[in-house]
Write a structure and sequence with these properties.
- There is one protein chain.
- By secondary structure, the chain is an alpha/beta fold.
- The protein is built from 14 helices and 17 strands.
- Helix 1 crosses helix 2 and helix 8 crosses helix 13 (449-465).
- The model is unreliable at 148-152 (pLDDT under 50).
- The protein binds 6-O-phosphono-beta-D-glucopyranose.
- 6-O-phosphono-beta-D-glucopyranose is lined by residues 236, 255, 357.
Length: 505
């Protein structure tokens, strides 16, 4: 019996919120239909909203009707819905946690594992974990030898695990992330903690590891000798919409850079781990993030761009005269042998021309061009585009000879797309992968405490610098454009330009 086929309960804190309805329940339902969930399993919703189980099931049905990826039968829904329960409660109310504990003990077997999912606003994370600790619900359960012999699948000394998935954002700066890590570690051991970054579950993001370390042809050139620079773009077409209240307090650096962009930088920049083990991989990622050079005040002014889309200030929920950037571009350097002197350009923003997440590995020009051709632009050279979304795949750009008697060259693309090579839509949704991995105890795609803090150290230095006179001016950009002119100038100064290697532009 594999571990996830043992009984388990998934307790969702914040079960009446948007994330549960939009992502978690549709993901669990799909996993259930694929027979990938523990057996038996139950899902227990906990939130302040005064629902009962019938109402919870009704609301979740609305969620799957809207967000399920494929049609399903009524019988399939009923099988799943019978496993959904709800107990209302406050995140700081000891009595409500005692009630939750009673409910769990009455409904699950003694050897049931438990996954707690913190899908609440971040201000409740520490409270919920403290309450779980105080209620005696946080510790892994070690059975006394032989006492569980009557439970099918049990063994003397077997553990019933307790794991906690913590949503983002994890802290709003380095100090608060450290404080939260301390509060969490006061109750839980690190092996019980699964800090989410849904970017890590995207198929192409995971494929960066396979691409780099299961092929021999890329690794020898993956360094400062052959690579001119790296671009990491996470562009969104949507504006802040109904999340303006949260977003105005956060801004693009906290919302996108500290987590998603720093994780991408770590995966592209890391050294080869010795094994495909969660800690071996996370060790290398942390080393890379720790090697990112902090920006001096002058570099801060010259190597960072911050901007806000026109009209942002008029959005409901945004404070008057808000200085919150909705776009940022950074030029960072990794101080180690592999990357010394190679700029990593990171950019992300809302209300941009198109949704695209991509990484460009821009190779150097050939050292000598023997052909009698004029190559316009200093960077007409090979690049590799890792397309993370929406069309997952890779593009490799290289020069070919144009047919004919003259020597003329033209750049062409060689590409691979998941949807061409595999069954379309076979790529699992990020939350399905993350939930399953947490149930199976695989923490590879989750962030460890030192990784969170290493990423914050980089982003905090920019956040703090932007509070001083060294900050670059907050510029604006037109919604639907590719961002402010200052971001083009950031690369243009060195004869470089932003690429869209994955879009047909
Ligand atoms: C979230 C951010 O982490 O990522 C959102 O809080 C953003 O602001 C979202 O829209 C983007 O995720 P994806 O998967 O759509 O690229």
């Amino acid at each position: 019996m594999t571990e996830h086929k043992q009984p388990a309960t998934i307790v969702i804190f914040g079960a009446s919120g948007d994330l549960t309805r939009r992502k978690l329940i549709p993901a669990l339902f799909r996993l259930c239909r694929q027979n990938l969930l523990p057996a038996p399993f139950q899902v227990v919703g906990f939130a302040v909203t005064e629902w009962d189980t019938a109402e919870f099931r009704r609301q979740m049905r609305g969620g799957v009707d809207e967000f399920a990826r494929e049609p399903f039968s009524e019988a399939e829904w009923q099988t799943f819905a019978e496993r959904l329960h709800y107990t209302p409660g406050g995140f700081t109310e000891a009595a409500d946690f005692a009630h939750l504990r009673q409910f769990l003990e009455a409904t699950e077997g003694e050897l049931s594992h438990r996954l707690y999912y913190l899908a609440t606003p971040p201000r409740f994370f520490a409270d919920i974990i403290a309450q779980l600790g105080a209620a005696g619900m946080a510790q892994d359960v070690y059975c006394e030898t032989g006492s569980m012999a009557h439970v099918p699948g049990s063994a003397p000394g077997q553990t019933a695990w307790r794991r906690v998935i913590i949503e983002k954002p994890f802290g709003r700066d380095l100090a608060s992330a450290q404080a939260l890590n301390q509060a969490v570690h006061a109750v839980l051991a690190e092996h019980q903690i699964y800090r989410i970054d849904h970017y890590l579950a995207k198929e192409t993001v995971q494929n960066i590891l396979v691409f780099r370390f299961a092929n021999t042809m890329f690794e020898p050139i993956w360094n400062r000798n052959y690579i001119d620079h790296v671009q990491i773009t996470v562009a969104e077409a949507v504006d802040v919409g109904h999340r303006a209240g949260y977003y105005d307090q956060a801004g693009v650096l906290r919302d996108m850079f500290q987590n998603h962009l720093m994780q991408l930088l770590a995966l592209v920049g890391m050294e080869p781990p010795a094994s495909f083990d969660a800690n071996a991989i996370r060790d290398e990622k942390v080393k890379t993030m720790r090697a990112v050079r902090p920006l001096t005040p002058t570099e801060l002014a010259n190597q960072t761009v911050r901007a806000q889309y026109e009209g942002y200030g008029a959005t409901a929920g945004v404070v008057a005269n808000s200085q919150t950037p909705t776009y940022a571009a950074l030029e960072l350097y990794i101080d180690n042998w592999r990357w010394q002197g190679v700029p990593f350009y990171l950019r992300s923003g809302k209300a941009l021309a198109q949704k695209t997440s991509e990484i460009i590995i821009q190779f150097k020009r050939p050292p000598h061009i023997m052909f009698p051709v004029s190559l316009d632009g200093p960077l007409r050279s090979n690049y590799l585009a890792l397309c993370i979304q929406p069309h997952e795949g890779f593009h490799q750009r290289f020069e070919v000879k144009v047919p004919g008697r003259e020597i003329a060259m033209r750049p062409v693309d060689m590409d691979f797309h998941y949807d061409d090579a595999f069954v379309p839509d076979s790529v699992p949704e990020a939350y399905e992968t993350l939930l399953l991995n947490a149930l199976e105890g695989d923490a590879t795609l989750f962030t460890r405490s030192d990784g969170i803090e290493a990423a914050w150290r980089v982003i905090d230095s920019v956040l703090q610098g932007w509070e001083t006179d060294d900050a670059p001016p907050l510029t604006t950009y037109r919604p639907g454009s590719w961002g402010p002119a200052a971001a083009d100038e950031l690369l243009g100064r060195n004869g470089r330009f932003w690429r869209h290697g994955c879009l047909d532009t």
